[in-house]
Amino acid sequence: GNYYDPLEKDMDNDGIPDRYDNDFRSSNYFESTYDVDGLKKDDKESTLGKLEKYKAKVREEFSLAQEDIDKEKDKGAR
């Protein structure tokens, strides 16, 4: 008999029936066919940038600790 199958429709008009469409709401054929999220890059900080920030932080903490050690040495010298 006749039955209604909503997945046989192509609601976003990209030429792919919704049953086989990876993103049935997007009319972008490339994204629908290959299941990609476009060519967007995530805005992630580079690993080298993170390392440089960490190195600077460690240097700063080390120099502050070294200053405290020097102050303690100077107290006993007086």
Broad shape:
rod-shaped
Order of helices and strands: HH
Count the domains: 2
Tally of individual helices: 2
By secondary-structure content and strand pairing, the structural class works out as mainly alpha
Flag low-confidence runs. none
What is the first-to-last residue Cα distance? 103 Å
Strand content: under 5%
CA radius of gyration is 30 Å
Helix content: 40-55%
Mean pLDDT: 74
- Strand tally, please? 0
In short:
By secondary structure, this protein is mostly helical.
Mind sketching the topology for me?
Blueprint: H1 29-34, H2 47-77
Overview of the molecule:
The chain contains 2 helices and no strands. It has helices at 29-34, 47-77. The longest helix is centred in the last third of the chain and has 31 residues, at 47-77. The radius of gyration is 30 Å and the shape is rod-shaped.
What are the main properties of this structure?
2 domains; single chain; 78 residues
